[in-house]
Each structure stands twice: as C-alpha cells, then as structure tokens.
Amino acid sequence: MASLPGMEISSVAARILGCLLEKGRTTPDQYPLSLNALVTACNQSTNRSPVVSYSPTIVEAGLDELRALELIRREKPLGGRAIKYSEVLARSLPMGKPELALLCVLLLRGAQTPGELKARTERLYAFATLESLDEALGRLALHEDGPLVEQLYREPGHKEARWRERLSTSTTRSSGTTDHPVSAGNSSARDVSEVTGASALVGRVAALEAEVKRLAAALDGLASKTQD
Predict the structure, then answer these.
(1) CB distance 165 to 134 below 8 Å
(2) How far is CA 37 from CA 26, 27, 41, 140, 222, in A?
(3) Dmax of the chain from CA atoms?
(4) Radius of gyration over alpha carbons of the chain, in Å?
(5) What is the pLDDT of residue 178?
(6) Who contacts 6 (Cβ-Cβ below 8 Å, separation ≥6)?
(7) How high is the pLDDT of residue 185?
(8) Among 38, 66, 67, 156, which one is least packed by beta carbons within 10 Å?
(9) Mean pLDDT per 10-residue segment, the chain (228 residues)
(10) 29: Cβ–Cβ under 8 A, 6 or more apart, which residues?
C-alpha cells in the first residue's frame, strides 16, 4: 500500500479526498459518492476555500491519482449503474476520528488556527477542549509515517499561529499569499536558529501530554482494581 508522505498529491486530489472524508461523515446515507456527486461536492461554495469550478474530466483525473496511491476505493453498488467512490485514507495512514476530522477541514479550507479548526470540525468530531484538539494536531505532526500537518509562522496582529496539512502540493491558501512553515529553511539565519523545530516541539509536547493522561488513567484503573 502506498505511503503518502513524500508523495504529494495535487490540489484537485486534495479537494476530492477532503470531500469524501466530509460526506462520508455528514451524509452517510448518500455515501459513497458518484462522479457527479463528487463534482458537486468539490464545487460547492460553502465550507470550501478556495471555491473552484472543476469539470468532470478534472475530477476524474484527481480520482485516478488517488486510486494510484490506494487512498480511495471504486465500487459499483449491487443493482446500480453509477460507479461510486469512497476514501480509505486511514488504511494507508492509520489515525483516529479526531485526526481525520482535522485533516478533512484542512484539506477543504486551507491553513487555519486551532480556534477555527475547533469550530469547523464540529460536524465531524466534537473536540471537548482546545487542548484535546492540540493533542490531535500533535499526533498528526508526529505521525509514524511522517508529519501530516505543520504549524506556520504566527502572522503579525494575530494571537494564534495557523496549521496546514502536508498532503498536497499547494502552498497558497485563501489569503492569497504563500504560507511559510515554522520549520521552513527560507528565512534569515537568526530566524532559523530561533524557530527551527518549533512545529515539531509543539507536536511532541501535545503528544507527551496525551500519553501522560493515558498513563495516569491506566494507573487510576489499576489502583481501583487493587483496592477491590
């Protein structure tokens, strides 16, 4: 099975993958999706950035790309005419529902702050706190197959730094500017010395905090059993 990190997908394939992730969770009764349904999903004007106008031919090319990477499945329902498509991203890159929800929204709407992500993932997965969302971002940043997200420089006048997905080739987001990750090597020597590895550090801290909580819960459970 293909390993995605290091094999960047096109912006078209990224939009298709995001749509399949979204529709599989928000409209399961209409899933998997036909080609026509996918074209409509890719081109819808809500919850998308940028808004695009893909033709069926363009979407078919993106589907071929994703099939080659074994990230989607093509099937023909019993008694049906139209071929339909579903995503199998978690088979290639194992992850849970929180991580899939974050990747879905990042694929569909570009770089976003944790606050924006918490609000926009609500339909897909309800994060109880920003801390739990940060932990999920940390797991994506430290994924065993390579980082699937990265943190960007905090923009002047903004309180939060944004995060973006690392699956697609596109680096231009809805702001119309090119985003630079914290770990990018295209800044000054002083900047690099100050911030190189900051994205990885944020991810490690979040992952370690999650592990500490898990171990603490396990110890509490063990203590309860011992008392019984």
Answers:
(1) no
(2) 14, 12, 6, 29, 50
(3) 65
(4) 19
(5) 46
(6) 146
(7) 36
(8) 156
(9) 65 98 97 97 97 98 96 87 94 96 98 97 97 98 95 89 91 43 41 37 55 73 68
(10) none
